[in-house]
Prior knowledge:
Blueprint lengths: L15 E6 L8 H6 L2 E3 L5 E3 L27 E6 L19 H18 L8 E3 H8 L21 H16 L1
Parallel strand pairs: 1-4, 1-5, 2-4
Antiparallel strand pairs: 2-3
Amino acid sequence: MQLIPIEWLPEAHMDRVIFHWTAGTYHASTEDLEHYHVVVQGDGIVVRGDHSVDDNEAPLNHDDYAAHTRNCNTGSIGIAVCCMAGAVESPFAAGEYPMTEYQWQMLIQAAAELCQAYGIQVTKETVLSHAEVQGTLGITQSGKWDISRLPFALDLQGAGAVGDLFRSKVKELIS
């Protein structure tokens, strides 16, 4: 079953998918919808953001786009899970709205569908978490650690480890 409706996928050339958590509750807020193209709520329901994917297509010479990753929005599709309000990186605490395994699975499904729709090959540079952007693409971010911990898999730690798992699961769905 298709998670993202086809009408949410306009023709565009997109380079990457960047996945996030909202640092909010399990429901998409007005701010969440302003910043992400696709949002997975706590119940797994997928909500379309205010901006179409093609609003972030290069060249980005306008002010009306989904601003989800500092200096890395052009050519980037932003997807997020609604969760992690009150989370603390160290010592790790998932807050009152921890990401669920179900949300994680829906996020993987959404990324796979977006990669297929836009012909994005799944690599560390093209499908990555916000927490991986600085280290992988060399674009300075401001203390972003989403997604570098999974509340349902506490033994998995670090942006690279979480990103590698995410990419492997996306590849499984595509192949």
